[in-house]
Automatic annotation (TrEMBL):
<dbReference type="Pfam" id="PF00440">
    <property type="entry name" value="TetR_N"/>
</dbReference>
<keyword id="KW-0804">Transcription</keyword>
<feature type="domain" description="HTH tetR-type">
    <location>
        <begin position="3"/>
        <end position="63"/>
    </location>
</feature>
<protein>
    <submittedName>
        <fullName>Transcriptional regulator, TetR family</fullName>
    </submittedName>
</protein>
<dbReference type="InterPro" id="IPR050624">
    <property type="entry name" value="HTH-type_Tx_Regulator"/>
</dbReference>
<keyword id="KW-0238">DNA-binding</keyword>
<dbReference type="InterPro" id="IPR001647">
    <property type="entry name" value="HTH_TetR"/>
</dbReference>
<dbReference type="GO" id="GO:0045892">
    <property type="term" value="P:negative regulation of DNA-templated transcription"/>
</dbReference>
<keyword id="KW-0805">Transcription regulation</keyword>
<dbReference type="GO" id="GO:0003677">
    <property type="term" value="F:DNA binding"/>
</dbReference>
<feature type="DNA-binding region" description="H-T-H motif">
    <location>
        <begin position="26"/>
        <end position="45"/>
    </location>
</feature>
<dbReference type="InterPro" id="IPR009057">
    <property type="entry name" value="Homeodomain-like_sf"/>
</dbReference>
Length: 293
């Protein structure tokens, strides 16, 4: 009985928060919509923040439950992989428009700093990221494996931008048409990645790091050394006198020695980077190195 009451409160809260917004919705509003006394709400949830966090989690569980049901339906109907991808994107966009508060709008609210909510947000972000990866792998197969995280990044960027326009009611397309348009654009991106075979920008090791899940020191160190290895490889390919090239490589090696230490000498690090920065071709990479330090 209590579980049913709790579930009713969460379901009602989703609707009230969605319709009124987080700031305008009150526990009294939710209690009245539930047909309960406000005290009954507080027996289950200590605060509006706690209730919003539960509503946020339940809302995204609903999305993934709908995605599983859609998967079963499409498997039974033996739909082509690209049609499956289109249908999943349409589902995601329909969900995002209906529950926009729980996907985008909360980022400007004070609750974004609530520790319990941030943990739920982080879990949702990781689950959605993995789901989007699986959607693309199913559609494009093993040939995309090397570039899967770059493809996911492009997909997320395109999806977010068009969802912003859709939510502002500036598009005349249906979500089914927009999903088909996005799949066609993804086809072009994936084909280009596979045919031109560039070095991947995102890989498993750094794809899950973001403002909610900052990079740990060990991972940051690994990325720094990878960047420095790229600088050294670039120096090897420069068209210049061997003596000058050797000097640049020597300084890059000294910089690497510093960066590998637990407490690098900041003065020496700056001196070595300043020397490498005198070579115009290296300046973009040195700027990135300085940014990461």
């Amino acid at each position: 009985m209590e579980q049913l009451k709790r579930a009713k409160i969460i379901d009602t809260a989703i609707v009230v928060f969605r319709d009124k917004g987080y700031a305008a919705a009150s526990m009294q509003d939710i209690a009245e919509a539930c047909g309960m006394a406000k005290g009954s709400i507080y027996k289950h949830f200590n605060s509006k923040e706690d209730l919003f966090t539960e509503a946020f989690t339940a809302c995204h569980q609903l999305l993934f439950a709908q995605a599983e049901e859609l998967d079963r339906t499409m498997s039974a109907n033996k739909l082509h992989s690209k049609e499956r991808l289109r249908s999943k994107i349409e589902l995601l966009m329909d969900y995002a428009i209906e529950y926009h508060l729980f996907l985008f709008d909360f980022k400007e609210l004070p609750i974004k700093d609530n520790e319990r909510f941030r943990e739920a947000w982080k879990n949702k972000k990781a689950t959605l990221l993995a789901w989007q990866r699986d959607c693309l792998m199913e559609a494009y197969g093993p040939s995309l494996q090397r570039y899967i995280w770059d493809a996911v990044a492009v997909f997320r960027g395109v999806l977010t931008e068009y969802l912003t326009h859709a939510n502002q009611r500036t598009l005349s397309l249906s979500m089914a048409e927009l999903a088909a348009f996005i799949v066609a654009r993804l086809d072009a991106v994936v084909t280009d990645l596979i045919e031109t075979a560039p070095e991947p920008v995102l890989v498993e090791a750094n794809a899950y790091f973001h403002h909610l899940n900052p990079m740990d020191e060990q991972s940051r160190q690994q990325v720094l050394l990878q960047l420095l290895a790229g600088i050294q490889a670039f120096i090897q390919g420069l068209d210049m006198a061997e003596r000058s090239k050797g000097e640049l490589l020597e300084v890059a090696g000294l910089l690497q020695t510093q960066l590998e230490q637990e407490s690098p000498n900041s003065l020496l690090t700056r001196v070595y980077m300043a020397y490498l920065d005198t070579q115009p071709e290296l300046r973009p990479s040195i700027r990135q190195l300085k940014h990461m330090l």
